[in-house]
């Protein structure tokens, strides 16, 4: 048993922390207010190798692991949760299934430019009528010679409109239920593909979330990911790891809120002494720090399991469940510690609180995480 991070992990943490403080934090509030994605930030992440952390160098990555990737998402989210989820969806929702299920040709053609940050990845599973019940999707893919013709729409797509490459799930044989779903790689310049409504959101406002639409969208059969009928399994396996990326995002959000609340509580004097020295506030900070540490340990454990090639689906659902709830609780307490000031946009904690909420919803609601965990421990 060893809880010490390796030199490589410490180095990546320091590099991402410096980058986040210097390049991401200064515009985080402004981008949130303007609902503005900044491609320059993504390009700079690419220069640092952050857009391909776990992928081997032969696919344009830096050959590190899932723990390093989680540390990067955590440090980015500590200052800007939108930037954290941009990287998370790009890496674990779009890059991962191509890395795991893609042919050599698909990896060179799609994963490599994504890892190098030349292209951005997205993931299309959710539909207006199928959120938690992902197997209820209606988007179809009908074979026509060397192509599949996709029709339907996907909603709540993180990186929607900015992504160049989407991993999309569609029904190829409705009679086969889960086994009649297939996965496809769809490039954004494919005729018949379009970007629909952009959501106006409570939080993660500088991460674009859109609808994507397929109208007789002809995708080469060579872009099918994995075998025909394997799509639902690919979607679920992708989420197994993706959820831990969201756990890392939640840990970062919570830590960012704790950092701000701690600094404030040490400065803010009421009743003749800093509020941090008043037990009511001091104990809040202690509980916040303890929950974050527990969430971080769960997250790192799941990342370590995945990096070691061990089963991690249950642990990843647990980390997402616990870290998401921690982020919501900690950010709410941070606003409370700031009092009236915390309710204004003069301080970052209201943004952290708004950003935290989504970590209890996307990549499977907290209720779905409980379903996954309970099924795994009772099967
Ligand atoms: N790994 C491999 N296979 C899996 C699996 C997994 N984790 N989970 C399920 N499967 C397989 C099952 O073994 C089963 O296969 P067989 O038919 O061969 O037995 C098949 O898939 C169907 O499984 P279930 O019967 O368990 O399926 P279900 O319909 O009951 O659904 C569910 C299970 C867990 C509820 C699933 O629908 C689910 O995860 N829902 C939540 C969807 C979700 O998380 N959406 C997030 C969207 S992405 C997003 O949010 C991104 C973002 O914005 C950043």
Automatic annotation (TrEMBL):
Task: Output the superkingdom of the source species.
Answer: Bacteria
Q: Which UniProt keywords apply?
A: FAD, Flavoprotein, Oxidoreductase
Span of domain Acyl-CoA dehydrogenase/oxidase N-terminal: 6-118
Task: Report the cofactors.
Answer: FAD
- SUPFAM superfamilies given for it? Acyl-CoA dehydrogenase C-terminal domain-like (SSF47203), Acyl-CoA dehydrogenase NM domain-like (SSF56645)
Q: Which Pfam families match?
A: Acyl-CoA_dh_1, Acyl-CoA_dh_M, Acyl-CoA_dh_N
- Keyword rRNA-binding present in the record's keywords: the answer is no
Q: Where is the Acyl-CoA oxidase/dehydrogenase middle domain?
A: 123-217
Annotated ranges, domain Acyl-CoA dehydrogenase/oxidase C-terminal: 229-376
Q: Family membership, please give it.
A: Belongs to the acyl-CoA dehydrogenase family.
What is the protein name for this chain?
Acyl-CoA dehydrogenase
Q: Origin organism of this chain?
A: Robertmurraya beringensis
């Amino acid at each position: 048993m060893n809880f010490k991070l390796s030199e490589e992990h410490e180095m990546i943490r320091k590099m991402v922390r410096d980058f986040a403080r210097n390049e991401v934090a200064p515009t985080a509030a402004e981008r949130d207010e303007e609902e503005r994605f900044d491609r320059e930030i993504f390009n700079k992440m690419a220069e640092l190798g952050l857009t391909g952390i776990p992928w081997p160098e032969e696919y344009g990555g830096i050959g590190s692991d899932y723990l390093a990737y989680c540390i990067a998402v955590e440090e980015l989210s500590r200052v800007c949760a939108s930037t954290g989820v941009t990287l998370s969806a790009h890496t674990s929702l779009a890059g991962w299934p191509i890395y795991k299920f893609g042919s050599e040709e698909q990896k060179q053609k799609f994963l490599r430019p994504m890892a190098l940050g030349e292209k951005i990845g997205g993931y299309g599973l959710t539909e207006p009528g199928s959120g938690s019940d992902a197997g209820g999707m209606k988007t179809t893919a009908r074979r026509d010679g060397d192509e599949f013709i996709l029709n339907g729409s996907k909603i709540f797509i993180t990186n929607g409109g900015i992504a160049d490459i989407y991993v999309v799930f569609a029904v190829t044989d409705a009679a086969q239920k889960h086994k009649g779903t297939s996965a496809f790689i769809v490039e954004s310049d494919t005729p018949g593909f379009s970007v629909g409504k952009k959501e106006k959101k409570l939080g993660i406002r500088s991460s674009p979330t859109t609808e994507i639409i397929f109208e007789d969208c002809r995708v080469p059969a060579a872009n099918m990911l994995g075998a025909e009928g394997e799509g639902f399994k690919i979607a679920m396996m992708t989420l197994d790891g993706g959820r831990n990326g969201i756990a890392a995002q939640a840990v970062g959000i919570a830590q960012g809120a704790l950092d701000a609340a701690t600094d404030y509580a040490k400065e803010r004097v009421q009743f003749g002494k800093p509020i941090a020295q008043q037990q009511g506030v001091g104990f809040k900070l202690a509980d916040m720090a303890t929950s974050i540490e527990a969430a971080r340990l769960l997250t790192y454990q799941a990342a370590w399991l995945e990096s070691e090639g061990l089963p991690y689906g249950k642990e990843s659902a647990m980390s997402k469940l616990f870290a998401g709830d921690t982020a919501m609780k900690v950010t709410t307490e941070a606003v409370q510690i700031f009092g009236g000031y915390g309710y204004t946009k003069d301080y970052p904690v209201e943004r952290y609180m708004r950003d935290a909420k989504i970590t209890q919803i996307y990549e499977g609601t907290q209720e779905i995480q409980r379903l996954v965990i309970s099924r795994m421990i009772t099967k």
